[in-house]
Design a protein that fits this description.
The structure is a homodimer. The first copy, chain A, is an alpha+beta fold. The mean pLDDT of chain A is 94. Chain A has 15 helices and 19 strands. In chain A, helix 1 packs antiparallel against helix 5 and helix 8 runs antiparallel to helix 9. Chain A is elongated. In chain A, a hairpin with a 2-residue loop joins strand 16 and strand 17. Chains A and B meet through helix 1, strand 1, helix 2, helix 3 and strand 3 of A and helix 1, strand 1, helix 2, helix 3 and strand 3 of B.
């Protein structure tokens, strides 16, 4: 097990130190708890899919796929070529088709897993990262109320996380579609792709691109006017109507978005924003689309996105419409660590270090630890019977708040809070570890 | 997102249905909780390592490595060739070297992740599976008490899991080493490899192989006599001494194993067995070695194994000795599902389905759900305002025990236990969900 090669990080494959991983686990636990409170069933799919299933999903996705092959072996050719999944939606669609007869629909599932994309690595953009997804999928038809539910689940999870204020921006694809058709722009997808660049290149360049694509000055101005509309209440509807464009698809979209915002206003006031510039890059969204920004960190881009697709999966006869949303967890946590200095208050789950007076009495320390653990208090027995000053430093270096001294008191043990220096008599079968210290907290460096 | 190819499972890449995944999650939660109670810090390493770091670990490992390459791209050749890790020990050793300056030693970590091995798939043997590892690593020297601690952590986790009785078999590599040297068999590794086949091929064939390798009839008989010794107490020491072989390495080994068994007798009576036939295939173990069998399912082989290595990692100047143990989680859960019929009592985390009287009152149902969730009760709002019989069947099909009817009582709501049929008045802000129903239980099909 010696090291044959130089040990260096691999660009785009991030790893955390223990305190940072504890922070990430806190995020994972909160997200999972909220997903489960909302009745999403856990699912995990294999990391690999047949390459042909991964190809052709649009954009640069094909180039970014990692192929997987055995270095040596005699069965190459017998199996289909495999690749690592680059999201959790494609594998979920395949899983639904594969297990349709054994699932109950509408099927609600959450999935928290690593995905891999061979992108050019940069801060907050990785080649290996964790996504946390929820989706609801049904057979044939999917009730529209699920489109209102998705952002509310995210709002509940995010409200429990130390990320400050956030906004979930919601749009409905039918609004720009109907609007563009209403003003005579028939290349809806092309127009959407150009308007989607608004945040990156600004309105002048978007106008130039629209004109280049054949729009009139008037049409370009109208498309930009639509994209400028946003509201946390239903006033966006009147703002669109004031532009004087009529089209049945536009009306459908406005009604659908108004329904989502109405539920949001009741359940998560101020969090949902109808924002008519949100388009999402992926071609398969057909209804509501979501993006999420942290207030004050808008430059990080969206940390949670998704939408509705009329055909999440299809086997040729049956179509499975779905709606889903995905938290870019690795991206979110890495940016919080790097830019806001978040980390865990200690580098171990242990709340208590049980000191060892001498190696002969290690058994006594072990019994204290067993008693504390039986009551749910994470602890560790000191690795050596060094002098107590050294044992306290051992705890301090890891951020462990309490050191337990067996037999230190008159006829019993004592426990020291090494932050305050307070040392009191204590019994391992009754001592109450303060709630705030039972698990590592979130702190700012 | 339609399906371009036939949907078929990939041999060796298992996937669970939701109820089975809930069972697996229960195992993961218990194991993680016990690891954290013992102060192991969580860690996750990237899925890939440079291929040269993965090669040369002995056995068939090289042939089983999966290489990872971008399907298309312009930076091939710039990066080292990458492969998926096949265990969590090699990546952990690399992580320790890479981060030695930022870790506090002795460093205790747990790691629960997928690993990949291109083995021939068979029942309980997969190409993608989850391992749950704990290791303690120190700089230069590692205190022997950690070798006693590892199996106790596993014993505590396994005692909380629905797996029945189990035995952790413990040996110390120095016992057979010193014994073989003491009887004049100098090829210790070769002899160990042959004796390790005892369970598979039986004593006659092992004797034949030993004779073939140059042992005398007397030496072969002695080697088999040693391997036959086992005890849950310290009597194995006298049984070895009765064979009349003396060697200082043998004495060291007996002392070390006696120390581990002594702690085991106090902390987990009857669970640890000194079993002198246990060798473990991997060459890098140098002290205590562990295997674990479920009583009544010995044919499954070991479900949790590990040992001590004097050099987990080394950068040429500093050596990091370690001791660790690894639960083969996917293997364990799959066998329990397939052979003992274990599964979860429902296919969703939801304990309650909140019925919807008509679509106009969906808001009222949503408010009930919000109140239940605020009190930690997982629930789901019915997908449609179908007649109540159909909504109850929806819950029944998923194993959801309770259906909530807003406004069904005199001036309030009612909740029905659909197993017993009992329906009572209830208030979402005070109703107590029975503890046994709050999370899915483990049941036998």
């Amino acid at each position: 097990m010696t090291a044959p090669t130089k040990v260096t990080p691999i660009s785009g494959f991030p790893e955390f130190l223990p305190a940072e991983r504890l922070l990430e686990l806190h995020f994972l636990d909160v997200i999972r708890e909220v997903f489960e409170l909302h009745g999403f069933a856990p699912l995990e799919t294999r990391a690999v899919e047949p390459v042909e299933r991964l190809l052709g999903k649009g954009g640069d996705a094909d180039k970014e796929i990692y192929g997987v092959t055995r270095l040596a072996g005699d069965d190459s050719g017998r199996d289909a070529a495999l690749g690592l999944h680059f999201d959790l939606t494609v594998p979920f669609a395949r899983y639904v088709l594969e297990n349709a007869g054994r699932l109950s629909f509408p099927f609600r599932r959450y999935q928290i897993q690593k995905v891999w994309r061979g992108e050019r690595p940069q801060e907050g953009r990785f080649r290996e990262f964790t996504q946390a997804d929820i989706d609801v999928v049904d057979v044939g038809e999917l009730a529209p109320h699920f489109e209102a539910e998705m952002p509310l689940v995210i709002a509940e999870a995010f409200a429990r996380l130390p990320i400050g204020e956030f906004r979930i921006q919601v749009n409905n694809r039918r609004i720009p579609e109907g609007f563009y058709l209403g003003i005579g722009l028939s290349d809806v997808a092309g127009t959407l792709r150009i308007v989607d660049k608004l945040d990156k290149i600004g309105p002048e360049k978007v106008t130039a691109l629209l004109l280049e694509a054949g729009a009139t000055t008037e049409q370009a101005a109208q498309a930009l006017a639509l994209a400028a509309i946003s509201s946390t209440d239903l006033s966006f509807v009147d703002a669109v109507r004031a532009l004087g464009v009529g089209h049945p698809t536009l009306e459908e979209g406005l009604d659908a978005l108004a329904a989502v915002i109405t539920v949001g206003m009741e359940q998560a006031p101020g969090v949902l924003v109808a924002d008519l510039r949100i388009a999402r890059g992926l071609d398969y969204y057909t209804g509501t689309v979501y993006e999420t920004q942290l207030v004050g960190s808008e430059s990080w881009g969206s940390v949670c996105s998704g939408g509705r697709y009329d055909s999440l999966a299809s086997d040729g006869r049956t179509t499975y419409p779905g709606v889903g949303i995905s938290i870019g967890l690795t991206r979110l946590v890495h940016l919080l660590v790097a830019r806001r200095g978040l980390t865990a208050s200690r580098s171990t789950p242990a709340a208590v270090l049980v000191a060892v007076t001498d190696e002969e009495s290690r058994d006594a320390s072990r019994r204290v630890a067993t008693a504390l653990r039986a009551r749910g208090i994470p602890c560790e027995v000191a690795p050596s019977a060094a002098r107590f000053g050294k044992q306290i430093r051992y705890a301090d270096r890891r951020g462990i708040p309490f050191v337990w001294f067996p037999g230190a008191g008159e006829g019993g043990d004592q426990v020291k809070d090494i932050r305050s220096g307070d040392q009191v008599d204590a019994d391992a079968t009754t001592w109450e570890c303060p709630d705030a210290d039972l698990r590592p907290g979130v702190v700012t460096r």
